Amino acid sequence: MRLLAPALLALGIATSAAAQPPPTVTVEGLDRGLTNLGLMAGHAVQCLPEGERPAAQRAVLAFNSILIAEMGANAAFRFATSFGAGSSHQVDRQFCERSLADWRKLVQDHNLNR
């Protein structure tokens, strides 16, 4: 398993890759990244067809287990609460394509589709 901190930080901070050096990992950046990741995952799961949601929910639980192992319970809690918030709002269909692409990349990168 790869360390999640750099990936989460990249999700939380919007920067131009060509214009700026990589950001320094901070607690605030990780928290922001976990929050954004959870919101995106919650939105993406809502965008999925009904038949694909159970597999996605299993993947969310698997990812949360990875967070517990690599970053601790506080990080997993931050992700889980953000996922809940993301999945409790009405779906904005104009962002489904991007959320689903980000979600599928997360599933692939962390081998959550097993």
Summarize the structure.
The chain is mainly α.
Q: What's the total helix number?
A: 5
Order of helices and strands: HHHHH
Share of helical residues: 55-70%
> How many DSSP E strands?
0
Mind describing the biggest β-sheet?
A: none
Domain tally: 1
Q: Which range does the strand content fall in? A: under 5%
Strand pairing plus helix content: what structural class? mainly alpha
Low-confidence stretches: none
Radius of gyration: 14 Å
Instruction: Calculate the terminal CA-CA distance, rounded to whole Å.
Output: 14 Å
Mean pLDDT comes to: 82
- Which word captures the global form? globular
Topology, pairings included?
Layout: H1 5-12, H2 27-47, H3 53-71, H4 73-88, H5 96-109
Helix pairs in contact: 1-2, 2-4, 2-5, 3-4
What does this structure look like?
- The protein has 114 residues and is mainly alpha-helical.
- The chain has one domain (5-15, 23-109).
- Helix content is 68%, strand content 0%.
- The chain contains 5 helices and no strands.
- The protein has helices at residues 5-12, 27-47, 53-71, 73-88, 96-109.
- The mean pLDDT is 82.
